[in-house]
Amino acid sequence: MYKSFSMELAGRTLTVDVNRVGKQANGCAFMHYGETTVLSTATASDKPRDGIDFFPLSVEYEEKLYSVGKIPGGFNKREGKASENAILTSRVIDRPMRPLFPKDYRNDVTLNNMVMSVDPACRPELVAMLGAAISTCISDIPFDGPCAMTQVGMVDGEFIINPSQEQWDNGDLMLTVASTAQKVIMIEAGANEIPEDKMIEAIYKAHDINQTIIAFINKIVAEVGKPKHEYTSCAIPAEMFEEMKKIVTPEEMEVAVFTDMKQVREENIRNITEKFAEAFAENEEWLAVLDEAVYQYQKKTVRKMILKDHKRPDGRAIDQIRPLSAEVDLIPRVHGSAMFTRGQTQICDVVTLAPLSEIQKVDGLDENVTSKRYMHHYNFPSYSVGETKPSRGPGRREIGHGALAERALIPVLPSEEEFPYTIRAVSETFESNGSTSMASTCASCMSLMAAGVPIKAMVAGISCGLVTGETDDDYLVLTDIQGLEDFFGDMDFKVTGTKKGITAIQMDIKIHGLTRPIVEEAIARTRQARLYIMDECMSKAIAEPRKEVSEYAPKIIQIQIDPAKIGDVVGQRGKTINEIIERTGVKIDITDEGSVSVCGTDKKAMDEAVDMIKIITTDFEAGQIFTGKVISIKEFGAFIEFAPSKEGMVHISKISKERINRVEDVLTLGDTVTVVCLGKDKMGRISFSMKDVPAKAE
Question: Which residues are annotated as part of the binding site for Mg(2+)?
Fold first, then answer.
């Protein structure tokens, strides 16, 4: 017999069915929020995976198109690889839950969330987040939960808890906050330049809601939760650490890691590892975990240096940013390019502009989002960290970093009416030593300005780190963390924004949450840092968007026509518009509202196409002057084509001021002539005159 649990959440009923379906999983929650239905399961292997030094957690978010009444496209007519939204949702679920599993747990764990029905008023992503937490909490998998997630939107300055899809897409804030019973454990946000104090208010409004959800989860666990199973610990033996300290003293390890050159530090650690391997040659058990033991030794050393001695590995002050440099136009012939360097992190971003017809089509569960006009793609090749491995295309990390930089810049982009282009930015990682996503934000902003995209404000980003001690008050926030401080620290708190406010946040931590003072200090520190980056580095390379797009970028002329005339421009089966395109070589996009975009690189050809469209959509009146080509000669006159599929007739009596006997005496096929409109004849045809054209018009 299954059990059903319900609570009121943001004005709607959240229901969790346990033991109704998926009974062979370690934990299963059949989630219902409004009419949104998600099946969340948690499963674990019986034994740890051999030969690994990490926790093998896999989080899946499966979008079933039947949930919104769609049949998938393509030949197979079934769901294919995960969409970008599915990948990003999986990452948001993974980030708060991973730190709550035991650090020495090596059993494979899979959290699967299958979207089966979507109610636009209840976003399935939120339901999956809650389902993943509940299914894990009630399972026998070791987990230091519960945790809960709440989303906050903002419309007309008012916060909305767990907004509908429309409110989420069109509001000024897209905030997701995960919490434990005591602390905030994850923050993900996109914002329309929200002030820092307003963002903090929203974060802790969500944190308060999370406490009611956690109480609900505790009630479920108390009734149907399974006892947690025993597992084989993969912790490093304490006696091994003691031996390591005799071979390489903590002081020697400190010297090895105390350098701002990543390559030098890695060479030092290689030499130390070889020394340990030689000393432990007879102990196979210790050799099997040597790499993890060296990692832990480095971690203890770096954390002690930072927290107790206030010394960073590269010698910087706690709030000091690494050396900065920026330049634009380093790549010739592209539409816009910029490079941003912060210490040993270096990003080159290239912007490409195209007509609106090249927007990315999006096929997913959100009916409001069917296309993307701005795309940011991030690449992370192995050479950027001095490694060698084949390129297999972007992974989840690359997609996540690209989405973060994309989200950071969307609030400052011009509207389609202001700038009728599709925009693609590509960030190439040349070198990486910490927070390439924030360097991508800075490089992308400058690249957009160099390409002539009239963004509304400059955007920069920076990441703060954290090292904590034994108590909540014992901590140190670090500005601009490098790779080593990220690996061995407790937090990666990324914030992007303008001088006015925040545009994006992504917070990852490895501990069981952050206190409010830490969150407030990190947000304040990132504001101070991003203003410094904009003023002291970015604005010196390029202070504002260029007034014109690159000579190599397509040019676009926009005109407005009467929507009722769209059919005239397109013509029967597209004959008219295709003829304009063939004659001029331009691209033409027409919206249902009558907005026409003419795109090309030849200004003369673009003007010619615009003139043709204007002629086609003009209501003909006597006195209008046209230039056209003779396409047919009859005994009684000649037919003049003055625009694709548009023609009129000049009667033989209207060709010349002198009397002529034959039309051919004056005109031949293909001649270009100037005519004046006389109105329409009895047959409804447009009637022209050549002899009555004013001398000025000729």
Answer: 486, 492
**pTM: predicted TM-score of the whole model, two decimal places:** 0.87
pLDDT the model gives residue 695: 73
Dmax over CA atoms of the chain, in Å, equals: 117
Distance CA 463, CA 397 (A): 16
Give the helix ranges, DSSP H, for 534-602: 539-541, 566-570, 575-584
Report, in angstroms and rounded to the nearest whole number, the Rg of the chain calculated over CA atoms: 33
Q: How many CB atoms lie within 10 A of CB 94?
A: 19
The label of the residue with tokens 């504001």 reads 527
pLDDT score of 696: 64
Amino acid at 62: E
Tokens 């959290």 map to which residue? 111
Question: Structure tokens of 556?
Answer: 């676009």
- Looking at residue 432, its amino acid is S
Strand ranges, E, within 585-685: 587-590, 595-600, 625-634, 637-643, 646-651, 672-680
CA-CA distance, 37 to 383, in Å (whole number)? 44
- pLDDT value, residue 698: 54
C-alpha 87/C-alpha 93 separation (Å) is 10
Provide the token pair at 169. Answer: 């897409």
What is the structure's pLDDT at 52?
85
124 vs 113: CA distance, rounded Å:
10
On the 0-12 / 13-18 / 19+ scale of CB atoms within 10 A, 50 is exposed
Tokens standing for residue 450: 């160099």
What whole-number distance in Å separates Cα of residue 63 and Cα of residue 146? Answer: 25
C-alpha–C-alpha distance, residues 309 and 469, integer Å: 13
Q: What's the confidence (pLDDT) of residue 84?
A: 92
468, β-bridge pairs: 475
Q: Check if the beta carbon of residue 105 is closer than 8 Å to that of residue 231.
A: yes
- Please list the ranges in the chain whose pLDDT falls under 70: 368, 696-698
Residue type, 626: F
Distance of CA 489 to the CA centre of its chain: 26
Residue 581 · residue 545 · CB < 8 Å: no
Structure tokens of 252? 């020697």
